[in-house]
Design brief:
four-stranded antiparallel β-sheet, globular, 10 strands
């Protein structure tokens, strides 16, 4: 398994990200809120984590939903995967949305998302007059089958 060293600053009482198993790709991050945040069905909220990162250049951190939270409660990360760029030094905040049918309460210390460190490839974009043709062409949104 590849390893990368990422510096983390955490506010007092905040847990740093943690991998729950030896084979886990994502490290859990927890909410850090002054008071419980109630999400009614259909509501979204920006939830602080109290975490700040110095990500090495050439990498990003992706913020993804926790499958258990989504399966059990219908709560997920709205902009998934979210990206934390290597030059960002602000607090990691997670946009949670309640797609379930019941009110959901976020408390400090609750595991709300997982983060994955990933390499970044920057593209060189070139303006052209035409593109090569493919069998698929401009077909999208289900055009390749069932």
């Amino acid at each position: 398994m590849n390893e990368l060293s990422i510096k983390v600053k955490a506010l007092d009482g905040v847990k740093i990200p943690e991998y729950k198993t030896a084979g886990a790709a994502g490290a859990d991050v927890c909410a850090f809120v002054d008071a419980p945040v109630e999400l009614l069905p259909g509501e979204k909220a920006l939830i602080g984590t109290g975490l700040f990162f110095a990500i090495p250049e050439g990498y990003e951190i992706q913020v993804r939903p926790r499958s258990g939270l989504a399966a059990k409660n219908g709560v997920t990360v709205l902009n998934t995967p979210g990206t934390i760029d290597s030059d960002y030094r602000g607090e990691l905040k997670v946009i949670l949305i309640n797609l379930g049918k019941e009110k959901f309460t976020v408390n400090s210390g609750d595991r709300i998302a997982q983060i994955i460190a990933a390499p970044v490839t920057r593209a060189q974009f070139s303006l052209v007059d035409s593109l090569d043709q493919t069998d698929r062409g401009a077909g999208g949104f289900g055009s390749t089958g069932k």
